[in-house]
Batch of 3 targets.
Target 1
Amino acid sequence: MKNLNQVVDALKLGNVIAYPTEGVFGVGCDPDNEQALLNLLDVKKRPKEKGLILIAASIEQLLPYIDLEQLTEEQVNTIKASWPGPVTWIVPVKTSTLPLVTGQFDSIAVRVTAHPQVKAICNAFGKPITSTSANLSGLEPCRSVAEVEAQLGDTGVVIFQGEVGNRTQPTEIRDAKTGNTLRQG
């Protein structure tokens, strides 16, 4: 279990971290480090095609990855009105974003978190991190440090001490272009 500075140092070195979110522990890494992304996918036993979510402290942190010019002003305002909070949006992606982040898609999943510890990580790191539930594929997501250690303890994941929020449901996922809800939250 590490403190904020140690977790940020781990991200800068390309390590995978585990951290508390609104409902479960997440695992993530630097979205601009291809080796870190490969390590994350290996830890999770997650197929490359599925893509990853970016979680940020502010919409400004997401701007290097998302192409808001492909959205209407109304669509952008709808997104902004839902943040910070537990809504993940599927939005157009900038071509400079690494394919391991987007998977097989020509879009990207992004969220601005309200969780204070995730915000602190993103602010200290200076950009978003990837976010996927802290669990091995097929197992229940972890809700405590002890559960993360039990499932991922031998993978080299750097664990940030903290408490998950009160959410019992996963974050809602919506498509920014269509407005459709893809997963209820």
Target 2
Amino acid sequence: MRLLALALLPFAALLTGGAAPERPRAPFDGAWMSCETYRGTQICSYKLMRQSGARVCGVQQYFATNAYYVQRFIAKADGNSARVERICGDPGSETSSYCTGQAPDDAARVGWETTDHMLHACGNRLYESDLDQSFNCATTRRDTGVPKVRSLAGNGPAPEDAAWMASCIEGNDD
């Protein structure tokens, strides 16, 4: 019955002259993933993000120098662009600081780091740039972006990273 009522809502709005409620647009809510074959093994990199208003919380995984790197980040969205404000995780090309609670005892740096990265959601693809680099969805090459996917197909974040995302989107940072 509830399904029928939801299906009829747009028609009821037409009859009453009112507009059906529109879902707020959250371009950074979802998963983006690309995979390639490396030495006979499928290697996938992804970004999984949740957006609430301007707040974007994400977990990313990428492969470099024969290892996977996983990081958490918090960004602030403005339209189809988001400025990554803080990042932590496995030290690599994106950060040199472990996240609180995940660092080995001898870690040199623990906690959030600032970054100059930007994310851009253009249609069903995600692009990255530096803060000082101009970016325009209309002029970018489509094949350079990472495609949005419905599922990470078993490549998703560890349970503690998924729990952090749920907490982060509620406004908690650690």
Target 3
Amino acid sequence: MLEALKNKKVLVLGLAKTGMSVARHLKSHGALVTVNDWAPLDENPDAQQLVQENIRVISGGHPQSLLEEDFAFMVKNPGIPYSNPMVVKAQEKGLPIITDIELANLLGEAMIIGITGSNGKTTTTQLTYDILSEADNSNGKTLLGGNIGIPTLDVADESKSEDRLVFELSSFQLMGTQQFHPHIAAILNIYPSHLDYHGSLEGYMSAKWQITKNQTKEDYLILNVDQHYFDDANTEAKRIYFTTDKNKQADAWFDYDHQVFMWQEEKVADRSDFPLPGEHNLANALVAIAIAKLLDVSNASIRHTLQHYQGVDHRLQYIGKINHRNFFNDSKATNNEAAITALKSFTTPVIWLAGGLDRGISLTEIAPYLEPVKAVVALGETAETVSDFAEANNIPVLGKAQNMDEAVNLAMTNSQEGDTILLSPAHASWDQYDSFEQRGDKFISAFEQWKKDKGE
């Protein structure tokens, strides 16, 4: 494939991180690259950078006349829909259209582990990577990439045959695959998502199923036995099932009676080994465990990683303990649905830190999920709204915090041993912070400062 790229004309449609990576790697393999991006050159730092690297850039629109050139294929940014006129015209002309993961499959030599689904992809991918990274793999490395923020080509192009590539894969990426071939593929779950892009739930499911399109009987496909979307779908891969339902059987399952993670009839780890709360995180852990067991990772190694796993930054991230109070940073919870997921994850008493940018959205739909909440610290622009909501549901309000230091202090001085202190704002961050990441980082800093000054 490397020789086949030399002097081939390739069109890269769309920039951002993925397009930049694709353009650079294609050029490094001798392809004659043309990048086409919608944003004008003077407003497009990425395009300006590629011009300096002697890569041809056509910006400020998608001129269909560009397709008159003799391109061998197009690499489309996953975020550009197939309904885009430039893409439609390319399809009409018979120009092959792929996404970055197809190139990663062609250029990389390593085994691919691909993880997709509607929810939980990032947590499961990161946990799988952590388990495999810490396990012995003789001379090989485990590399992380994909929809997790690391372009697939950046890791695939440097990989060797003894390595393992762990990719988080979106439906947008999978829709453009032709020869993509993971040795282990996992579909965590399916919920209606991105229907504007795929046109229907069936279109969305079809894109997800592309992950197993080229698998053989030597490969594995991990599926959720609690859902039935793919019961009748065809694959040559060996099906491996997981479940969090105590009444169902699967290869990877959770024994609720003994609170242990199981692989077939073998105990792998205790629930207490894994700090992330919630049934959804049980499912995420079971998939990572299944992948690890298929690759012969020892239970001791799996347990060690589970015990030290903090989760994905700002997504129900366990950040530590002060005086027997557990702290969780869920700053990415910028809406009601995400906050509900967080609150449903706890049975211990919760001091809930909530509030942020005022978008005029009611909190009423959260009310049925307030059972674990013993008190609230109200934050930001909607502090008054959050306070009124808490009081209407007979939950004490500890105060309206002006910043995260004040919020942590209010929570700590009004809590007891065994309580959980949870930042899950249910609002965007832009009233006080540049991003949800900055908000979460401020919370972590306040936690660390309190622990340093007053913790046992």
